[in-house]
Amino acid sequence: MHLTPADARRISGSYSVVRQPDRPDVAAQSDPKVIETVSAMLSEIERDGLPAVRRYAERLDGWTGGEDFEVPESTWGPLTDDLPQDLRDALDAGAERTRRFAEMQRSHLVDFEDEVIPGVVCGQRYVPIGSVGAYLPAGRFPLLASAFMTVGVARAAGVPNVVSCTPPSLHGQVHPAVLYSARASGAQRVFAVGGVQALAAMAFGLLDGVPSDMIVGAGNAFVAEAKRQLYGQSGIDVLAGPSEVAVIADETATAQMVAADLLAQAEHGPSSPACLVTTSAELAAAVEVEIERQLEGLATRDIAGAAWRDWGSIYVADSPKTAVEIMDLLAPEHLEILAEDTDFYLENMRNYGSLFLGPWSTVAYADKGMSGTNHVLPTGRGARYTAGLSVARFLKQLTYQKATRASTQAQAGPVVTIADFEGMPGHRDSAQLRLDILARD
């Protein structure tokens, strides 16, 4: 997530580079070995079905639970009862706020119909997809809010069948906090299976007999590649690479806050890029020093430090307008505005996954579900052409039309003309038939 020579030619203002990686950005799916491994796994699972899922689960997940991967609902309570009460309260709050925002979004997606020309009425309906498979990661960091953003939002959209998969990580059991988060989000069925085999099992309908119309959720490079290869068999949310954070800051921002917010996202992984664009050279210099200071006391410094060392960037822009130009080219997944005039950036920015305005709004809040917006967002400059996961992604915008006899000439006449020119007699005859009926009556 840094500027290329081609980018530089598109920026009208001036800027200076304080630091940036000396290598190309990490592609979301680029490792040939990952691509080959995933392809072989998917082919085997599609051919052999659930026995292949079980073989991979035993080898990769350490699964010893026998034939049935489902976590019985009767065990959900006992498995989560020992979680701290404050954690349960926090997860309940995140699930409820994410659901509330999704319901607010849904209320603004309205069905309608109206007359296009006299006698021709067109309309649209929002219809939920039939089945969703949600992957809930529980690896190095169990991302507890993932269920809010996937299971909970799908439920808010009215999806009738939602299944969830999460890897068995504790003595053959699913992670209790992940399970609690799933339950708080309205999960219906949870299966203890992880990785590529989980996505394949949901896409092919091997767990509950219903192929998932859409598979969603974060994961490692193998999970991301599986989603890419399964696209077409099922819909997906986004093709995500390493988590990204960017900050636009002016002289009113503090180096302490900028550094803390950059490192908070850098700890997602050693290839997670973090970028600062500032209109203050003094702040740029102070942030570099402050990041090194904060890394000394950060428990995840081996991860966040590597991410900053290898993928961190800082640019000093000559104006807010130039800062916007730079960020719209980078199209970051998460973008914080730590500047006095946040409205300027809200009105002028076009390319980002989600925007965080002012010092009292931080990416960490949304990551954990506390603000209610979805954190399944495009990376790798994908925000140039797509938004992240939302209630709208679980709804199909279906159109329909109906016409009266009196509108026939207005439609059929031009169709005959166009079809004749194109050399498509079937289209011409379909329209001309109706004209002939009118002429006879």
TrEMBL record:
Family matches, as CDD domains: Histidinol_dh
Cellular component GO terms, alphabetical: cytosol
Cofactor: how and how many bound: Binds 1 zinc ion per subunit.
Domain of life according to the entry: Bacteria
Keyword NAD found: yes
Keyword terms of this UniProt record: Amino-acid biosynthesis, Histidine biosynthesis, Metal-binding, NAD, Oxidoreductase, Zinc
The protein's required cofactors: Zn(2+)
Binding site for substrate: S243, Q265, H268, H334, D367, E422, H427
Pathway note: Amino-acid biosynthesis; L-histidine biosynthesis; L-histidine from 5-phospho-alpha-D-ribose 1-diphosphate: step 9/9
UniProt GO molecular function: histidinol dehydrogenase activity; metal ion binding; NAD binding
Active site residues of this protein: E333 (proton acceptor), H334 (proton acceptor)
Annotated Zn(2+) binding sites: Q265, H268, D367, H427
Binding site for NAD(+): Y135, Q197, N220
Region: Disordered, residue numbers: 1-30
InterPro entries: Ald_DH/histidinol_DH (IPR016161), Histidinol_DH_CS (IPR001692), Histidinol_DH_monofunct (IPR022695), Hstdl_DH (IPR012131)
Gene Ontology biological process terms in this record: L-histidine biosynthetic process
Chain's role: Catalyzes the sequential NAD-dependent oxidations of L-histidinol to L-histidinaldehyde and then to L-histidine.
Stated family: Belongs to the histidinol dehydrogenase family.
Name of the featured protein: Histidinol dehydrogenase
Species name: Microlunatus flavus
Lineage: Bacteria, Bacillati, Actinomycetota, Actinomycetes, Propionibacteriales
